[in-house]
Amino acid sequence: MINIQEFTKGLEAEFEDVEPGTLNPDTNFRSIKGWSSMHALIIIAYIDANYNALLNGADLKSAQSIQDLYKITIEKLK
Amino acid sequence: MAYLSTSNTNIIAISSCVPGHIEKTADYNHISVEERELFSKTTGIIERRVADKDVACSDLCYVAAKHLLDKYNCKEEIDLVIFVSQSPDYILPATSILLQNRLGLKKDCIAFDISLGCSGYVYGLSVITNLMQSGQLKKGLLLVGDKSSTSTTYTDKSTYPLFGDAGTATLIEHSQTKNEMHFNLQSDGSGKNSIIIEHGSCRTPFDKTLEDLVEIEPGISRAKKHLILNGMDVFNFALREAATNINTLYEKSNKTKENTDYFVLHQANKLINESVRKKLKIDIEKVPYSIDVFGNTSSASIPLTMCYKMEEALRTKKLSLLLSGFGVGYSWGSVILETENVYTNLLEYDRA
User: Fold this and answer.
1) Exposed / middle / buried, residue B80 (Cβ in 10 Å: 0-12, 13-18, 19+)
2) Nearest CA to CA, how far is A45 from chain B (Å)?
3) Is B221 inside any structural domain?
């Protein structure tokens, strides 16, 4: 079972400009400094590579927080 | 599954031509410096070649093809020319026919166009080798490329810094040796809206507002005539389908990844290609890149990468290759083939 803390920590590690420990499950990921569509691609790649779940544009659009991304990932794995 | 194989053809030579004008991602001041850096890091694109307004894709392919025809002195022997592009000279006639005349090829020459983008080189190879395998056609030219800068605009950060212009020519001959090529070709038109130029043809014809720039979202302003790219859905498609297509091809053809010398992937963007490479569990040394200096060059990206990164290996060795293209349509496909002593070269377009 995926752990949301690990999920968040792993995602944070993908964003090189983000200080470790700044992201938490409630963080609106679009509030990351300098957010751009490149970050969205990095999120999709991270979840695919680590959890074998493939998110699309609509999934990203519907999510606000890291917790939302986590829930979508869990749903995809069912 | 559309698995097929062809035989009795050889790739003799590949030539590529790119514009001389270089645009660097670091100079793209439509977005912030930080966003440029992240863009380069994620896509791998440091710079691209962009053609002048009055230069067409066919001009780049012409230069590439002319070089091969002169080198091999085989103008009179070309029985077939296929132009694969989504930036033809005109809606009609087909650009391949114009190139038949411009290159001075005989009239006893089959010429037609194929409208495909990122998958175009693999599809083009499947068509030309099918037509040539019987031996009735001895030599053929596969001309592949795009001038994507025609359909993008500086004010659209989702497309403008991504695409580069390039044209290529591949000279193919009928061969007495078996030399099989194995293809796995696929299509899914439900992805049409992910990469589309919606206006300007039969479905949504020209109108007076075709040129009007409209802001879609911050950083993205474009007109109806321009390319629309949904990067996230294209990314999802590539991760879902590319590696699966390749693995299926290996199963069907009884070939192995271990015996493949190079995997030449369409240069979509670095994050996509690295994800595909990791799914395939192949070493980075076996996956050449050209996206850093040419950007995403659509259908030209596979032959251009071969010319740019594999000149010596192709010229001096017998190689087993996997080529894979995936994108607009969606359309995607892969081919496993063998080459031996293939000549390649890379030219800069010189209008003189």
Assistant:
1) buried
2) 7
3) no
Catalytic-residue membership of B266: yes
Please report, for residues A10, A30, B139, B274, B337, the alpha-carbon distance to residue A38 in angstroms, rounded to integers and kept in the order given: 17, 11, 44, 15, 34
The complex's ipTM? 0.87
Q: Which residues of B touch A49 (CB under 8 A)?
A: 275, 278
For residue B142, the model assigns a pLDDT of 98
Contacts of B271 in chain A (CB under 8 A): 41-42, 45
Q: Using a CB–CB cutoff of 8 Å, tell me whether B235 touches chain A.
A: yes
Mark whether B118 is an active-site residue: yes
Compare B99 and A77 and report the one with higher pLDDT: B99
Amino acid (1-letter code) at residue B95? T
**B210-247 pLDDT tens trace:** 888 888 888 888 888 888 888 889 999 999 999 999 99
**Could you give the number of structural domains in chain B?**
1
Best probe of the B interface among A18, A39, A41, A69, by most B CBs < 10 A, is A41
* B174 catalytic per annotation: no
pLDDT for position A1: 59
List the catalytic residue out of B10, B184, B266, B269: B266
pLDDT tens, residue by residue, A16-70? 878 888 889 998 988 888 888 899 999 999 999 999 999 998 999 999 999 999 9
Please determine, looking at this structure, whether the domain spanning A4-14+25-77 carries the CATH number 1.10.1200.10: yes
Classify residue B211: in a domain, yes or no: no
* A42: chain B residues, CB-CB within 8 Å: 42, 271
Contact residues, chain A, for B278 at CB < 8 Å? 49
Pairing of strands B195-196, B181-187: unpaired
User: How many helices (H) and strands (E) in chain B?
Assistant: 9, 17
Percentage of the residues of chain B whose pLDDT score is greater than 90: 89
User: Looking at B17, B118, B273, B307, which residue is catalytic?
Assistant: B118
Q: Provide the domain limits for residue B98.
A: 1-198+227-352
Return the structure tokens found at A18: 């983000």
What element of type H or E holds B171? strand B166-174
Q: Does residue B1 register a pLDDT over 80?
A: no
